DNA 3'-5' helicase II (Niastella yeongjuensis), 367 residues
Amino acid sequence: MPSNNVILAAAGSRKTTSVVNMSMANPTKRILVLTYTIENLDTIRSYFIRDYGMVPPHITLQSWYSFLLQDGARPYQRLVYPDMRIESILFAERKLSFHPSKSKPKTYYIAKGNLIYKDHLSEFVHQVNEKGTGCVIERLEGIYDAIFIDEIQDMSGYDWELIEALMQSKIEICCVGDPRQATYSTSNSQKNSKFKGGRCEGIFRNWEQNGICSIQEMTDCFRSNQQICDHADRIFPNYKPTTSKFFDMTPHDGVYKLKASEVLEYYSQYRPIVLRNRIDSDTMNLDGFNIGVSKGKTFDRVMIFPTQPMLQYLMDGNLTNLKNQSKAGMYVAITRARYSVAYVVKDAKMYNKINLPGYREVESSVL
């Protein structure tokens, strides 16, 4: 069995660049690079073009769902559906008053129009592989020598069963990601729910104990200054501290709080990228990005419109009331910035309780 690796990479550690470089290191190998979102797939493709001028022929780039459908479900679908072809994936959330039985696969897996439910896609591939005594994995062994999976923290449910099966195959597997940035999930399946999102490190440790992979950590950050790294690290104190390798400096570096009355002036002066929880968040008529969509991006400065749980954490530093999704979102938002992070705090009482320097206070001391 080849050596398999799981790389836990802090934000800004150039993990996607590492995937690109590692996949280019062995031009004689047939390599598949996988990731969950189309946005990240486009980023990986752009990195290949930026650094190497093209995506070379020995490398295939594919989204996770496309991989499951094309290389998992369709080749052996007749083991379950002898007279039917799965056309595509239904991404809409399934809303049922009853839970269909697995003994009736046409209603359990398939929607009208021969579409397979996205929440059951990896489960279907797992079932097909078992019915065909490892046929899916065996076929992949004949196509690829190595598979790289970026943003591994986004996997869930039966994805873990398939990845474990791949790790026990002849294919070399390298998974790269950051459990702290688990803002997405491939499915709502309850299978392996204890490893969902930020808890995925647990399954990596199990694999390491069982001898099917080794775990490496990347703790150097090339994106953000040390003040931003330290601020982000406090949200996940059980992880190794991040060391900044970003040494550029400006007169306005660090983490700040902003009063509502200061927002437009601050925005005009520093032109930060506005980050919000959802598209309907009140950003005082300033355009911005949803935090989840900003993952993988780098900005000079960010202005965060925090949620109520985030504000509560900023006031009391108590992580127990900050849910995993809020922790991940907050960590992603903070670590997009090179030089400065500014939180908008509209409530005066909350503003006074947050132990961060105020924008005007710092500007006055500099002057």
Q: What stands out?
A: The longest strand covers residues 337-345. The chain has a mean pLDDT of 92. The radius of gyration is 23 Å.
